[in-house]
Write a structure and sequence with these properties.
The chain is mostly helical. It contains 6 helices and 3 strands. A 3-stranded antiparallel beta sheet has the order 1-3-2.
Length: 119
């Protein structure tokens, strides 16, 4: 599943990825402590996450649980970034990253090992 989440939605997901299933009021309390959100703000963002298929809401208790993993979101965001900034070319991204600084022999060895493991 490829879901594009905004920064506010990621804040909700971070709580759910860390805690697992929680009541919306508990999520609101945690986000109030972390980022000073009101209960209304949290509920609005939760509703958007449910609509996108990122969160499941069950009643009674307005229990929320994540439907997508952090890894799925990271992968989708990375692919979107590569498409937008590098025309979908992963090798251009890597070349850009590697061109920023000189690599030590240890860095090169680690990169070669990663590349071999990915084959």
């Amino acid at each position: 599943m490829s879901v594009k989440l905004f920064e506010s939605e990621l804040k909700v997901m971070e709580v759910l990825w860390k805690e697992g299933e929680l009541a919306a009021k508990e999520i609101a309390q945690r986000l109030k402590e972390q980022v000073s959100w009101s209960k209304t703000t949290t509920y609005t963002v939760l509703k958007k996450c449910v609509e996108k298929g990122a969160v499941r809401r069950t009643d009674p208790g307005f229990l929320c649980s994540p439907l997508i993993s952090r890894e799925e979101v990271q992968k989708a965001a990375t692919e979107d970034f590569i498409d937008r900034m590098y025309g979908g070319s992963k090798d251009w991204l890597i070349a850009s990253l590697l061109g920023r600084e000189e690599l030590t022999p240890d860095d090169v060895a680690r990169l070669k090992k990663i590349a071999e493991e990915m084959k």
